[in-house]
Amino acid sequence: MEITIHRPGELTSELRAAWHRAMDESPEYANPFLAPEFTAGVGLFRGGARVAVLRQGGVPAGFFPYERGPFGTGRAIGLGLSDCQALVHRPGVTWDAGELLRACGLSIFEFDHLVQEQRPFAPHVTGTFASPVIDVKPGDGGYPEWLRATYPGLAKTTLKKERRLGRDVGEVRFVFDERDPEMLRTLMRWKSAQYRRTGRMDRFSRPWIVALAEHLFRVREEHFTGVLSVLYAGDRPVAAHFGPRSSTVLAAWFTAYDPELHYYSPGLMMHLRTAEGAARAGVTLVDLGRGDKEYKDWLKTRELRVGEGFAARAHPVALAQRLWRRPVRGLRNTVLAHPGLRDPADHLLKAAGRLRTQGRAARIASPAGRTERLPKR
């Protein structure tokens, strides 16, 4: 096995075509997060992004995207954003994890959404987790008919709320592939506010993530397209979702809604409309991503399994990294897996989020009650 290392922007059209063929030949690699376009996008904003190309008999047979950090620490490309990770390869190709890490100059490789079929990494998996998916297929008729046939338990309540939204705000309409960049910025504002409101880390406070989303929104290729879907009531946007799609898989990525309209359940409306729209656009699978959420239990048709862990060589840096990161991940997983711990933690995060929001509002307001412009950070 010959292994060469490249920056994502250095991949030739021939190598990208070989990567796409490997995706097409194995359904488990059809996820858009495994496409070269996603890796190339991350590479524009993350200097450590690399791709190892595996060749057999001189022919490209596998592609391993990763990010290289200080002292040979490595992580899956877009770790923390990507909901699917793998060494994408043609059927029948095998490799040695230690040899791969040596070729990449890595002492350790961290992953948290690894495709289950990655057998050479199997000894390094510390836990596997459910990743709910929706198997979708085009329905006959319009959205109400599709909803009643696919989700009979949710159909009556959802359609009732949509009719009420139409009466109160404006006629409800859905755009599966919205090309207005201002709507993407609206979605990011909503999501950023949601992160802060619920005490979570605000991903869109990081300029490189904002820039990555804007870049991927403009990518329109067969194996990767950034899809922005928007639910409107009249001319007013109610909810939106942005995520990448391949030729057959749509990844549920960022969903948010106008908090002033929360009593209409716009988030659930958005997920249902997106699934139906994806089916009509030729998608066969909507990947909801790892994580326990009530709406995922309602919508899923089955579950995939993804792995979390650290592939490492015998190296002091690998030992130190694992001793630091593994307890943090273990604690988080323990909390998420037990409702008796998860629910109090969730309430605590939301309370902290409210306090931060109130504190920010107090800092903005002047002593005289006037609103002042804060300096840019």
From TrEMBL:
GO terms for molecular function: transferase activity. SUPFAM superfamilies: Acyl-CoA N-acyltransferases (Nat) (SSF55729). Residues 156-296 form the BioF2-like acetyltransferase domain. Keywords: Transferase. It comes from the Bacteria. This is GNAT family N-acetyltransferase. It comes from Streptomyces broussonetiae. Transmembrane segments: none annotated. InterPro entries: Acyl_CoA_acyltransferase, BioF2-like_GNAT_dom. It holds the Pfam family Acetyltransf_6.
